Amino acid sequence: MKILVTLKRVVDYNVRVRVKSDGSGVETDGVKMSINPFDEIALEEALRIKERGEAEEVIVASIGGNEVQQQLRTGLAMGADRAIQVDAETPVQPLTAARIFLELVKKEEPGIVFLGKQAIDDDCNQTGQMLAALWDRPQATFASKVEIADGTATVAREVDAGLEYIEVDLPAVMTSDLRLNEPRFVKLPEIMKAKRKPLETLSLDDLGVERAADIEMTTFEPPPKRGGGKIVESVEALVSELKAKGLL
Amino acid sequence: MSRILIIAEHDGETLNPSTAKALTGASGLGISDIDVAVFAADPAGVAEQAAKLEGVTRVLSIAGEDFAHALAARLAPEIKALADDYSHILAPSTTFGKDVLPRAAALIGVNQVSDIQEVIDARTFKRPIYAGNAIVTVKVAEDQPVVATIRTASFAAAGEGGSAEIESRDAQGSDPGHTRFVKLEGGGGEGPDLASAPVVVSGGRAMGSSEGFDIIYSLAKKLNAAVGASRAAVDAGYVPNELQVGQTGKIIAPDLYFAIGISGAIQHLTGIKDAGTIVAINKDPEAPIFEVADLGLVGDLFEIVPALEKAV
Ligand SMILES: Cc1cc2nc3c(=O)[nH]c(=O)nc-3n(C[C@H](O)[C@H](O)[C@H](O)COP(=O)(O)OP(=O)(O)OC[C@H]3O[C@@H](n4cnc5c(N)ncnc54)[C@H](O)[C@@H]3O)c2cc1C
Ligand SMILES: Nc1ncnc2c1ncn2[C@@H]1O[C@H](COP(=O)(O)O)[C@@H](O)[C@H]1O
Predict the structure, then answer these.
(1) Hey, what domains does chain A have and what are their CATH numbers?
(2) What are the Cα distances from residue A113, in Å, to A141, A144, A174, A207?
(3) Prior bond to A94 cis, omega within 30?
(4) For residue A238, which residues of chain B lie inside 8 Å, CB to CB?
(5) Do B199-311 and B4-169 fall under one CATH topology?
(6) What is the reported pTM?
(7) Is the CB of residue A163 less than 8 Å from the CB of residue B241?
(8) Which end of chain B is more exposed for a tag (fewer CB within 10 A), N or C?
């Protein structure tokens, strides 16, 4: 079985993102970029499945300009076997991303496609579900535990009410939640080795994908600031402030 | 044709308050026809609850044994089958809505607008991106249906007093069989529901252990509040995952929020930025939580929290 893992290049989660003063977007110049944290977790899970002998090959894929090769190389250094860059000059929205991944699925025929539950830049939380729809296969979103046996997977999903367990027939789409695992650190020799692993570049034309209509983004603004707070000196003072506000 | 369809969230018996919040978001669109679809094994009870919500025109009651658990692979084609009659298809932005609606959107052939926090007009919305560090205004093209999830923390629940007609519909598809519900492990904790409680008391990594969390539960009980937690506290196993507040946990808007031993990471703050009053208790006066807290108290929580419980 092959596992296809998608890696999106995003602004690192530690960066405090700022909106450009003209409202045309967010400041990304000179900002640290990383693999979307959920995708790193998805890759870690795929690698563990392979290390347990339940998969033979882990392929990482990313959509974007040549800069995404950085994140693909990091994925290879973590332990993926090969990488696919789907060249796209302008960012793709979830439906287009799902169409692209569907074509990769047809080419590679993986048993599992593992995505992050959401990209921490657009916070859409759509692509995995869309891929599962287009592929007409099961989806196990927000996975916090995955067990594989006899062509099915049992997945614990983090839902608002607690943990939901579902069983899905493979092939299936999974999306990772934070508690699925803790991704490994990459070691220097692995980075060297990763340079020699195969990285293929495909275009949207190669894959025969047409972009879906985008949702237009007109203006960006910073979130409203919460009013400056007040430090109280004692529990009594806190209680009387809360009483004054009618909250107690 | 302008007509809205809201996909109801429920547990088979009770309509989830998230549906009434999505309804409030929908009523801002300026479209008077609002239908609610209830997919359930036995939808009658939930459909009646939905019909009572103020502003609902019609409830579509769709029965099917295989609707007993909300499986996206089963529900998405049903939503797609209804889609032609609607200009807007909405669901609450809960794990239910987030799971099922993008699958339906892909079948319909459009991108989804995730987490609407403000409605500008019927096709223009504001939504948070970058963990709430930026708000983007998005516009859906005229020739496309709007498929969107509504950020429940941004809208109050619609009231009751309506009496919409209930219309039974037949399910269109059948169970693909490839996805099976096994079980739900719920905390099933006592006390009010975290997503809708007016007062929430949250603890962080500083609680140190699940026993350490006892003082949080105890204060919450005294205040009739729900208990929440930071991701660090959940990851450490002090409390179950459904208590996590934040970007990847629950987004909540209580009137009063206590952040106790929580540093105030941006991912946590995303979950509480619509709270009425935020109280922070932390021993580090430089903790970022104090930048957003309305009231702060610097000191050791293990002294402050029991004292606070006595004082209220
Ligand atoms: C993609 C992503 C998504 C995330 N999503 C979420 C999310 O949804 N929700 C979330 O909460 N986090 C989330 N996080 C994690 C987040 O970045 C922080 O790591 C986390 O919120 C820290 O939790 P904490 O404040 O409890 O712990 P810490 O940051 O360790 O803070 C503990 C605080 O307790 C104080 N303290 C210690 N002892 C005492 C004492 N005796 N009395 C008083 N104060 C004391 C300390 O001064 C400190 O401020 C996410 C991270 C990533 C990368
Ligand atoms: N351009 C992209 N390149 C690689 N993976 C992507 C891309 N866009 C989306 N994904 C994957 O889809 C997941 C969900 O993204 P989203 O629906 O945008 O929140 C991400 O965590 C990635 O795994």
Answers:
(1) 2-244 (3.40.50.620)
(2) 11, 15, 6, 18
(3) no
(4) 279, 295, 297, 308
(5) yes
(6) 0.95
(7) yes
(8) N
Residue A187, Cβ neighbours under 10 Å: how many?
A: 11
CATH number assigned to the domain with residue range B199-311, chosen from the 4 options 3.40.50.1220, 1.10.10.10, 1.20.1730.10, 2.60.120.380: 3.40.50.1220
**Both structure tokens of A120:** 């921490």
Residue among B99, B136, B296 minimizing CB distance to A229? B296
State the nearest Cα–Cα gap between A194 and chain B, in angstroms.
Answer: 30
- In a mutagenesis test of the B interface, which of A126, A163, A174, A211 is the best target, namely the one with the most B β-carbons within 10 Å? A126
pLDDT tens-digit series, residues B80-102: 999 999 999 999 999 999 999 99
Of A11, A231, A242, Cβ closest to residue B298: A231
This complex has an ipTM of 0.95
Please name the residue that has the structure tokens 């220097």: A188
Tokens for B97, please give them: 């809505």
Domain boundaries, chain B: 4-169, 199-311
What is the distance between the alpha carbons of residues A95 and B251, in angstroms, rounded to a whole number?
A: 25
Which atom of ligand 2 is nearest to A125's Cα?
19
Token duo for residue B230: 């930071």
Amino acid residing at A215: I
CA–CA separation, B239 vs B189, rounded Å? Answer: 11
CB B305 within 8 A of CB B286: no
Report the residue of chain B nearest A179, measured CA to CA. Answer: B235
Q: Which tens digits make up the pLDDT trace of A102-127?
A: 999 999 999 999 999 999 999 999 99
Would you call B312 and A241 a contact, using CB atoms and an 8 Å cutoff?
A: no
